[in-house]
Automatic annotation (TrEMBL):
It comes from Heligmosomoides polygyrus (Parasitic roundworm). InterPro entries: Transposase-MT_Hybrid (IPR052709), WH-like_DNA-bd_sf (IPR036388). Residues 1-25 are annotated as: Disordered. This is HTH_38 domain-containing protein. PANTHER family: HISTONE-LYSINE N-METHYLTRANSFERASE SETMAR, MARINER MOS1 TRANSPOSASE-LIKE PROTEIN. GO terms for biological process: DNA double-strand break processing; DNA integration; double-strand break repair via nonhomologous end joining; mitotic DNA integrity checkpoint signaling; replication fork processing. GO terms for molecular function: DNA topoisomerase binding; double-stranded DNA binding; histone H3K36 methyltransferase activity; histone H3K4 methyltransferase activity; single-stranded DNA binding; single-stranded DNA endodeoxyribonuclease activity. GO terms for cellular component: condensed chromosome; nucleus; site of double-strand break.
């Protein structure tokens, strides 16, 4: 018999199990990347003793992308923003037609 039933809890509602607390904060990683933007995911993972996929998730969450062996903020140039705007205008016009 399941422990919750033994204790008298006969509810069929799912309990929120949640995600375990992260061993790494975005602020810690951001500070480390700003101090040395040339570190690899593997080096960062070893430093914090966590999996590389966790580092990658956090880097994505703080908006960092790897370019030319450096982690940099992902920012669009004026030309890229204009191209995206133009594409949206064309798509909006097509959907209204």
């Amino acid at each position: 018999m399941h422990n919750s039933i033994r204790s008298g809890d006969e509810s069929l509602e799912d309990e929120d199990q949640g995600r375990p607390p992260s061993l790494l904060s975005d602020d810690q990683l951001k500070a480390m990347v700003e101090a040395d933007p040339c570190q690899t995911v593997e080096e960062q993972a070893q430093r914090f003793s966590i999996d590389g996929s966790t580092i990658s998730r956090h880097l994505n969450a703080i908006g960092r992308v790897k370019k030319l062996d450096k982690w940099i903020p992902h920012e669009l140039t004026a030309g890229q923003m204009l191209k995206r705007h133009d594409t949206c205008v064309v798509k909006a016009a097509q959907s209204q037609a």
